[in-house]
Structures are given as structure tokens and as C-alpha cells.
Amino acid sequence: MFRIIRKSLKTGKVTGQYPAPTQPQPEVSDTVREKASVLGRSLTIREVDTGSCNGCEMEMNALMNPVYDAERFGIHIAASPRHADALVVTGPVTVNMERALKDVYAATPDPKLVIALGDCACDCGMFKGSYAVTGPVERHIPVDVKIAGCPPRPSEILGALRKVQGR
Amino acid sequence: MVDINEAVRSIQATFGTKIRSADRVREIPVVTAAKQDIPAIASHIHRASDLRGTLSLQWAVDLRPRQAAYRLYYLFTLGRGTWLILMTELSGEDRLFPSITPRIHAAKWYEREIRDMFGLIAEGHPDLRRLVRHEHWPKGTHPLKKDFSWNHLMGRQDGEYHFRQIEGEGVFEVPVGPIHAGIIEPGHFRFSVAGEPIMQLEVRHFWKHRGVEKLFENLMWSEGVALAERVSGDTSFGHSLCYCQAVEALIGVEVPSRAEYLRTFFLELERLHNHIGDVGAICNDAAYALALAHCGRMKERIMQINDSLTGSRFLRGVNVVGGTSVDLSLDGVTMIEHTLKEIQEDFSDLARILFHNASLTDRLETTGVLKERTARDHGVMGVVGRASSIDRDVRRDHPFAAYGHLTFKVPIYRYGDVRARLRVRIDEVHETIGLILQALENLPAGPISTAMSSAPRPGDWALSAVEGWRGEILYFVMAGEEGKVHRCKVRDPSFVIWPAIQFAVLGNIIPDFPLINKSFNLSYAGTDL
Q: pLDDT tens-digit profile of B306-352?
């Protein structure tokens, strides 16, 4: 027990210790902001991987570590689409994941936001045209916000999500 | 150590004229035989007491347009790291080859994959259900055949995958996935349970199949690095290094020694942040969130170092064919040495806290045991293998980059449970920090890359191996016409280890599955390709 307390005291506060994002922030239109305004100060996200290389997943996970600590801004990760306000979709949509993506979208209650995360989700990236890829996320479901990058840094993702929250 | 000349002579002596030829391609012996003799020879290599070969990779190549034939390769690892390739050819309209799965279990997924990708059927295979192609793919779509275009528009048909079923009173099936509760990749798990314990698990993957191997064939061999970095994002550096090594062997480029040390340094940096992250994540799945918070913080610190050194948190863009594109400054070296010593102390503190916590170790011990025998039968290696007594590590057995000049220990544990896999990772964190400090201390001066002089001859091929943080990554690259890649076979260690997890969970309860799965922490993207 004392070891744990000593460790925490020795470590101190690490939240916020990251370099400021250098990439330009993505566009968030007024209609999207208005849509998000009913959600108040919280944003509950369901993350859906439709064929990414898992780089974007790693950065989404990093968002939850003590350094970025997205929870302090009311951003949570939900275990089910039924509890989600927003879907964050990563990866080009593969032929095998197309149905699953549409099912998830249908299972998410309205009003809902869809955020395409990473170059693959925005325009298929390196996998554009492949026989196994059906197209970017917006070909299958309406996309509200696109966050470019391969993968975008956690600070950039956090910045974009804050912008969606209207802050 | 197995003497390879002796091994080839022994195979020739046993099979006589059935061995059509035994050549060497870049030091690797290639034994050629007719297809009907393959099962007997493969089985001999696998079982003979002086050979004891593990099937490390099995793959096919469509030789068109140069030749209307398919070639099948079987890569065996004898002893710890001696390679031997068995090869056969199917010519003309021949689409059948004899399966070796009844004798060598490790071939099971490879032969199903070959069937899906090439339409070549392994006769006598006990399970010929589709693997990569889900049931809605139309009949006759075999993407790696040369007459299948890379941007083919896929149709859709009706079809249903039949899971293995256990029937009886009180037996229930629990389907999980493809979309899971956490921030993880898609995959489907089908459990059969009677009461709490798992009686059977069937893993169904390939949801993320993106056509990576076909896309390689669309690229010039110098352009493949960026695609290799995106095979499995968490192993960006390991995959790009393996691809670069294969291409360098093909065109005969000598990599400068400074670049060899830099590659070692970056590969170990990748191992470090992944292992530290995994230690936290494994503990978190046993509801010990404290470790996740501390490890998440340490991992983040290393990824920020990656970013400041290379401009990419995933070390992308660092590897180029012929060396690296990023150099280290003297200031950079001092900063890293200082930071790593701090992290080592920080991490050791945490490890002590972990193993003093009885409620945590109680969850980890005897959970998800992968028996040594099962691991061997599947050809399991890497972190998971080393936790089940499989003493293999490419860095030691097949030294690449600068590993031949550095000293390190390979931690081996016997029990094969979650705790053993956690221990391997914790021990490797220390070895890795030691390796990085050694590499930086001995970093030679000089250029960081060599210009490429020649182009590879069409039809030439090379094989390369890298010990990524999960385990052995293999790349087979065959050169095509006009500087293109004719075939690139990618093998992430996850492809080999996924089938083994089906055995490790038996007798455990479903609530322990996330913990077991996390202790394996396999890549879905690297498996699905």
C-alpha cells in the first residue's frame, strides 16, 4: 500500500504533458456543432475498426491514458453502440466489414455523429482501389467530421473532438 | 545447432531419386521434389530425430506470365534457426496438391489460405472451409492469381459459415464479435460452454482483409516500404525492416554499419513501448487499473521520443531500402540514455508493486495455459512461445541488423500461463533497455544509407526474418518484370499464434478470455492482411 502511494507521489501530475498539435484542425461545420449541442458537455464514443492497420486504435487508446486523459473533457468510450453519441470509424471499409459497419450505424441511437478517423477512413489511403476494400466510410454511412493523418496524433484527435463539443 | 549440409545429405539419403534437386539460394538450401512425394518428405523433416523441423511458413507463387505454373514453398526451421526450403511445382491446369496438414498441424491455416488466394486445393486437408474469403465472396475469386486484377470489383453471393458445433444437454454457444467492447480490432470468437468452463473456442478472422499482398504486386520494389509499415501499425518498424532486408538481399545492397545500429535501436524502441503498454493492459484486464495508468504514462513518454526523433510516433518513414532516412544527433543520444535510465527505474518500481499484489497474481497464475507440446505443434514462437519453453529468438538465432555484435539474454519461462507471458515481457523490457544503451554506446560513425545500384533479376527471390516485438516476422519477396514486386508473402507472428489460442482457453471461464487474449495480444491486421 505504501509503495503504491509513494509511487503516485513520486510520479506527480502528468496530464497535459504533450506537445501542442502542429497539424491544422479539421473543419467542423455549424450544423455538426448544432447536432452535438444536444449532447451537452459529454461525448460518448463507440470506436469501430473497419480495416485499419491498428495504428489509429493505438492512438485512440492513448487518448485514455493519464497524459491526454480525455475523460476530463467528458469524452468516454462506450462498450456498445447503443450507448454511444458518436461513432469513430477507422480504416478503409473492407468487403468483410461492410455489413458490420452498417449494423453498428443502425444500432446507434439518434441523434448520432460519425467521425472518420485517419487517412484510410477519409479516403482509403494506401488501400484505395483494392479488391478487398469497398470505399471510404462516407460511401456507406453519412460522415460528419473527418480527421486526417496516418495516424493522427492523440493531441490532434483530442483537439478535433473538443471542436465537435464546441469548445 | 543442426548442420545444414548434414541435414540435406540425410534427406537425400532417405529419399534417393525422389529428391529432384538440392540447390542453394542465398545460403538457404532448397530441396525440390514432385508434389506426390511432398507429404512424406515434409513429415520426415518434421519428425526425424536429427532434423525436428518446425514448419515456419508455407506459401504459393503464381509464376505467370513467365511460366504457366504454380510453385509451392515449405519453409522449415531446423533446431533453433537453420532454414530449409522444400519446393514443388504444379504445372499447367493442375490445381490439386497433397495436404501435409494430417501430419504437420502447423500447415492447417496456410493450406486454407493458399486455397482461398490461389484456388489450389490441398487434397486430404481435414477442414477445407473458407478462411480469408468470407462466404459472401463469389465463387472463383482467388485474388493472388495473376489473372485477377488488383482493383477487381467484388460481387456478393449468399453463403453461411459453419462453425464447429458441440451438442448436448446444457451446452451453449456464445458468439462474440466482430465488433468488441474495447478499442480493439474486429474478429469473431465462438465459444461453446457447459456451465462456466469453455469447452471449445473457434476463432474466425479475416474481417480486415485489405488485399495487402496483392497491393504489393502493384508497387515497384522501392515503394513497398510504406505499405509494409501499414501491415500492422503497432509493428510498423518491424515489418518495414523485414521488407527492406528482403529487398536488400535481392539487389545485393550492403547496408552501412551505422544504419544497422540505428535499425537495432529503433526496433528495440518499438519493442519497448509495446511491451510496457502490454504489461499495463494485461494487468488492467485483471482489473488492476493502477498498472495501466503508470504503463500508459511510460509508453506515452517513449512514443513522444519516437516523434521527436523521427517525426512519427510509429517510426514510420525511418526505414528505406539501403539503410535509414533518420540519423541521431549527439544531443539525441544523451537525451535517450538519460530518459531510458529513468524509465527503467520507474518500471522496476512498478514491477515490484505488481508481484507483491496477491489478488493480481492469483488471476494471472494457471490462467490460459498454452502447453509446450501445443505450442510446438503450431510452430508458436515469440513472446508467447518463450513463455511456453520455446527457446527461439531471431535476434540470437539468425542475427540481423547489429544484433550479432550485442549481448542480451532471451528470457524463457515454462508454465505458459498469463503470468509467464507477463514475466517474459517484463524481463524483455530490461533486456531491451540494455540493448538500446549498448547500441548507442557502440554507434559507429559513417553514412546511414547506401545508394541502390542494380535492379533485381525477374524471378529472383529472397527471404528475411526479423524478431518484432510479438515474434518472428517473415517476408518472402520475388522480383518481377520492370522493377515490380512479383510476389510478396507477409507473415506476421499473429497468423501462427491465433490457432494456438483456441487451445489455451480450454477449461478457462469466458470472463478470463479477455485477460488471456490480452496476454497473447496478437495483431488482427497482421493476420488478415
A: 999 999 999 999 999 989 998 888 888 999 999 999 999 999 999 99
Q: With beta carbons under 8 A apart, name residues in chain A contacting B294.
A: 7, 11
At residue B274, what is the residue type? N
Q: A-contacting residues of B 152-211, CB under 8 Å? A: 152-154, 178-179, 181-186, 206-211
Which residue, of B85, B103, B123, is where some domain finishes?
Answer: B123
pLDDT-based confidence at residue B1 (cuts at 50, 70, 90): low
Chain B, 220 to 249: residues with Cβ < 8 Å from chain A are 226-227, 230-234, 236
Same domain, B355 and B475: yes
Residue B461 lies inside a defined structural domain of this protein: yes
Q: What is the CATH number of the domain that holds B63?
A: 3.30.460.80
In whole angstroms, give the CA distance from residue B519 to residue A56: 21
Interface contact flag, B208 A7, Cβ < 8 Å? no
Look up residue B449 and give its three cell numbers. 544509407
> Which A positions 95-154 lie with beta carbon below 8 A of chain B?
95-97, 100, 104, 125-127, 129-134, 150-151, 153
Asked whether residue A20 is assigned to any structural domain, the reply reads no
User: Based on the structure, what is the number of domains in chain B?
Assistant: 3
- Which of B61, B92, B123 is where one domain is finished? B123
Q: Which residues of B touch A19 (CB under 8 A)?
A: 304, 307
Smallest CA-to-CA distance from B299 within B322, B328, B276 is with B276
Among candidates A147, A10, A24, A131, which has minimal Cα distance to A86? A147
Q: Looking at residue B450, what is its pLDDT?
A: 87
The ipTM is 0.93
Q: Is the minimum CB–CB distance between A25 and chain B shorter than 8 Å?
A: no
User: Does B136 fall in a domain?
Assistant: no
In which domain, by residue range, is A51 found? 41-164
Q: Is residue B156 part of a domain?
A: no
Cβ burial, residue B445 (10 Å; 0-12/13-18/19+): exposed
Q: Are B401 and B267 members of one domain?
A: yes
Structure confidence by residue, pLDDT tens digits, B115-130? 999 999 999 999 999 9
Which chain A residues are Cβ-neighbours of B211 within 8 angstroms? Answer: 127, 130-133
| CATH number, domain with residue B236 | 1.10.645.10
Residue B474 and residue B320: Cα distance in Å, rounded? 18
Q: What is the pLDDT of residues B236-248, one digit of tens each?
A: 999 999 999 999 9
Residue A23 is assigned to a structural domain of this protein: no
Residue B308 lies in a domain: yes
* Domain tally, chain A: 1
B285 and B396 belong to one structural domain: yes
Residues of A in contact with B236 (CB under 8 A): 53, 55
Interface of A with B in 52-91 (CB under 8 A): 52-62, 64-68, 77, 79-81, 91
Read off the C-alpha cell for B173.
454457444
Residues 200-219 of B with CB under 8 A from A: 206-211, 214-215
Which residues form the domain of B406? 212-528
Domain contains A47: yes
A72-A73-A77-A78 Cα dihedral, nearest 10 degrees? 110
A100 domain residue, yes or no: yes
The verdict on B95 and B196 lying in the same domain is no
Buried b or exposed e, range B29-54, using 16+ CB within 10 angstroms: bbbebebebbbbbbebbbeeeebebb
d(Cα B178, Cα B364) in Å, to the nearest integer? 26
